[in-house]
Structures are given as structure tokens and as C-alpha cells.
Amino acid sequence: MSYTALVTGAxxxxxxxxxxxxxxxxHRVFAGRFNSADPGLPELVSTYGNGLILVDLDVGSDASxxxxxxxxxxHTDSLDLLINNAAILGDTETTVLGExxxxxxxxxxxxxxxxxxxxxxxxxxxxxxxxxxxxxxISSEAGSxxxxxxxxxxxxxxxxxxxxxxSNVVHNGVKAQGGQVLVLHPGWVQTFMRGEKDSAATLTxxxxxxKLWSIIREAMEQRRSEPAEAPVFLDVDGHILPW
Length: 243
Fold this sequence. Notes:
The chain is of the alpha/beta class and about 240 residues long. The protein has helices at about 15-25, 40-50, 60-75, 100-130, 155-175, 205-225; strands spanning about 5, 30-35, 50-55, 80-85, 135-140, 180-185, 230-235. Helix 1 (about 15-25) links the parallel strand 1 (about 5) and strand 2 (about 30-35). Helix 3 (about 60-75) packs parallel to helix 4 and helix 4 (about 100-130) packs parallel to helix 5. The radius of gyration is 17 Å and the shape is globular. The model has no long low-confidence stretch (mean pLDDT about 95).
């Protein structure tokens, strides 16, 4: 089955590899582009042509999200899958004993927690107008209260916990219409979120994206026969994580 999907944070890393994976399987993809200087998406356009539509997108901006949603509506009246992947990290060192940067925290919350909710809210009618009606929020084990061990990472951990909560609230609001929300931890990935490549991480973006897409695809196929009563919070290998 061919899907129409939108991926945020698609310039590089996991987002770019999710776009690539979807295109390789013949799906139509809208890719949220934050930095037009990154070469990855234009290279995919040259390979896949009209199967990939680039959408300038800053999930931290109401105006940008609304403009992006309007562009999507110019091309389609339904969206099978929204993957909310865009995120930033913030300070990971300062504990409560140090001087915390609350302005930076607000920026992280705005992008990570409200960004995915902005996207969902702007596109929910298109999502519910599709057959698959699936929202996949890329969260993190860092957002799990049940297994919290850190003494810092305030902005990132709290923002991902907020993603988990709004995922539950959204799921409750769309399940009667056959919609579903997935909450997924992508694993420890070799990305540039810290400003340089995290080469000690155990997964490449390609590996993480492949595992995530397998989980998402299975959930979309399952939804058609057995709508989920509650959202799932899974790690990249499909194991259930504590909220």
C-alpha cells in the first residue's frame, strides 16, 4: 500500500533517513525543511522527483506551521502519516545546583513539545481524512518518568515528557475517529544534536530510521483491523517503555 506522509526535521539525521526509507518504498513524502543549505533533501529530490515535496518549516513558529500546512493542502486532501521528528537538545550538563538557563529551556519546550502539537493540530483534518490516520511522535527514553536516572538535561527530558503527555491526550481525542498516536524512542543515535557527531552512539541514523519505520508500518497495518485503545510508548526495538 502506498502512503502519503509528512516528516518534520527532515534536513539531516533520523528525519532525512526516514524520508529516504519512505521514498525507497514508493511512498509520497512531504519533507519539513528547516535549513535550505543542507544538501540531503535536494539530493533526494533529484532522485525521486515529484515523489518528494519540500516544505519550509520551523515547528517553533505558528506562522511557519500554518504556511506549511497550507502548502500540503495544495497537494493533497489527506495525510496517512505525520512523523513529528524535529527537536533540539539544549543544555545537558547543568544540575539544579548550577545556574540554569530558563530562556533556553523555553526554546527547547517550544520546539520539542509544542512543535509536534502545532503540527498535529494544523494537519489533523488531513490525517483523519486518510485511511491510516497515524501520528508518530519521536520522543525519547529521556522523557520516561518511570525510569528517570539523570540529574540534568532539564529542558530535553521535560520537553519529551510533555510530548508523551500530549500524545496521550491527542490519541484520546482521535481514537473514536480511528486515529492513533505512536510514541517512539529512536535509540542512541549518531547525530549532531550536541554540535558535533555523537560517534559513541550505538546506532547510525540509517539504522534507527529503518527500525522506526518498521514499527510505524506495522502499527499502521494493525490499525486497520484493530484500532488501538491507548497509545504505545516503544523503544527502537519495539520494547514497551514506562511512561
